[in-house]
Amino acid sequence: MRRRRGRPLTGEEIQLWSHVARTVKPFAGRALPLPPEDVAAPEAAPSLPGEAALRPSRQADPVAPPRPALAPLVPLERRTLTALRRGTQSLEAVLDLHGLRQSQAHDRLRGFLMREQQRGARLVLVITGKGAAGTAMDGDERGVLKRMVPHWLRMADLRPVVLGFEDAAHQHGGTGAMYVRLRRLKDHSP
């Protein structure tokens, strides 16, 4: 709840705002502001039937403790992408997921990214393959890994590991592969 420019909020406006704010779910990692207690209640006006339900109570609703926010994903820098395309920057590791089922690929991707982060790697290549162009063969959906790997990289369990990702350049596999930038491990020693 912020003060409007030019004049302070009246007690009635603050009560109305607190009533509206109770009906809204806050963004992840944020809490609803509590109304100030020192504001005098507005003068009682004659009430109409059903109007009491619209009046906010002075008792604040309990707010759930905020969950820690997920680390944001950021795109790879243009300079880095250009260096990779030109071959002036090398990749530190490569993971090929061709021929794996989803569960196998997900487990292998998680293990690979965490292991490379522990080693201190900053930029790796994950090869998913392109899949067939919109066809299904023998009842299996094609191109599943190409679609699922970006989803897995955005999930909460890999956010502490993945800083960002982009489709690879043509010489590294194009849309059938991805550059993944890894976060640095925080040093926990004193």
Characterise the protein shown here.
The chain is of the alpha+beta class and 190 residues long. The chain folds into 2 domains: 1-69, no CATH class; 78-182, Ribosomal Protein S8, Chain: A, domain 1. It contains 4 helices and 6 strands, in the order H-H-E-H-E-E-E-H-E-E. The protein has helices at residues 11-21, 78-86, 102-119, 144-154, and strands at 93-96, 123-127, 136-137, 140-141, 162-167, 177-182. The strands form 2 sheets. It has a 4-stranded mixed beta sheet, covered by helices on one side. A two-stranded antiparallel ribbon has the order 3-4. Helix 3 (102-119) links the parallel strand 1 and strand 2 (123-127). Helix 3 crosses helix 4 (144-154). The longest helix is centred in the middle third of the chain and has 18 residues, at 102-119. The two termini are 39 Å apart. The model has no long low-confidence stretch (mean pLDDT 77).
What keywords describe this structure?
190 residues; alpha+beta; Ribosomal Protein S8, Chain: A, domain 1; 2 domains; four-stranded mixed sheet; two-stranded antiparallel sheet; 4 helices
Order of helices and strands: HHEHEEEHEE
Total number of beta strands: 6
Spatial ordering of strands, largest sheet: 1-2-6-5
Task: Kindly name the structural category.
Answer: alpha+beta
Q: Let me know the largest β-sheet.
A: 4 strands, mixed
User: Which word captures the global form?
Assistant: elongated
User: How many domains, in number, for the residues?
Assistant: 2
- CATH architecture classification of the largest domain: 2-Layer Sandwich
Q: Kindly state the mean pLDDT as a whole number?
A: 77
**Segments where pLDDT lies below 50 for 5+ residues?**
none
Strand content: 5-15%
**Fraction of residues in helix:** 25-40%
Question: With helices defined by DSSP (H or I, 4 residues minimum), what is the helix count?
Answer: 4
**Measured distance between first and last alpha carbons:** 39 Å
Q: What is the CATH T-level topology of the largest domain?
A: Ribosomal Protein S8, Chain: A, domain 1
Question: Which CATH C-level class of the largest domain is it?
Answer: Alpha Beta
Radius of gyration computed on alpha carbons? 26 Å
